[in-house]
Amino acid sequence: VEVQVTVAATTLLGLDELPGELAGYGTIPADVARAIAHDPSGTWRRVLTDPATGHLLDYGRTVYRPPAALRDHVIARDQTCRFPGCRQPAHHADLDHTVPYPHGPTSAANLGVLCRHHHRLKTHARWRVEQDHGVFRWTTPSGRCHIRRPEPLAEPVANPPGKPDAPQRDPDDDPPPF
Ligand SMILES: [Zn+2]
C-alpha cells in the first residue's frame, strides 16, 4: 500500500515551513511532511510541488516530456542556458534531463535549460554535468570544474509608499574597470 504525501519542494529543502498534505487525512505540519517524505521504507509516495503555484515538480520516470507547469518552473528558475557563461535565453533553448531519462526522473531537480549548441556538446562531447536543485556543476574534458547557480530572481516586493521604484540594474553591467 502506498500513501501519498504532498510537500512543497522548498519545505523539503528546509527553506520554509509550508504545511504538507497527506492523502485521505488532510493538512500536516511541515516537519511531519518532511519526515514522511524522507522515510526510506517505500510506503510513501512523495509528491513535490512548486509552493508558488502548487504545481507538481516531480513526475518520476512516468513521463519523458515535462508537462507545461514543470517546464515553466524550470525556465523561470534557469532563465538562460546553464552552460558556463552562456546567456542564450530559455525560449530559444531545450530542456535537458541532466541525468538522461529514464535513469534520471522528469523532475525540476533533473531538468535544465540548455541551448541547442550546448545540448549537443553535453550529449556528444566529454563534458560532464551534475545538478543539485538548479545548481549545475560542469566538468570540462580536461577536468576543470565550473559551478553555475540560478540567477537571483526579482523579488515581487511592493515599494513602501512615497518611495520611487528602485532602478533596475542589469546583472551584465559590470562596473567600469577604473
Ligand atoms: Zn548555451
Largest sheet geometry: 4 strands, mixed
Helical percentage: 10-25%
Give the strand content: 15-25%
How many alpha or pi helices?
4
Category from helices, strands and their pairing: alpha+beta
**For the residues shown, what is the average pLDDT?**
83
List keywords for this structure.
alpha+beta; 19% helix; 178 residues; binds zinc ion; 3-stranded antiparallel beta sheet
Characterise this structure.
This protein is of the alpha+beta class and 178 residues long. It contains 4 helices and 9 strands. It is elongated, with a radius of gyration of 19 Å. The chain starts with a strand and ends in a 30-residue tail after the last strand. Mean pLDDT is 83; it is low at 159-163. Residues 81, 83, 86, 88, 115, 117-118 line the site of zinc ion.
Please specify the SSE layout and strand pairing.
Blueprint lengths: L2 E6 H4 L7 E3 L3 E3 L1 H9 L5 E6 L18 H11 L14 E5 L13 E5 H9 L3 E5 L2 E5 L5 E4 L30
Parallel strand pairs: 1-4
Antiparallel strand pairs: 1-2, 2-3, 5-6, 7-8, 8-9
Bound molecules: zinc ion.
What's a quick, concise take on this entry?
A hairpin with a 3-residue loop joins strand 2 and strand 3.
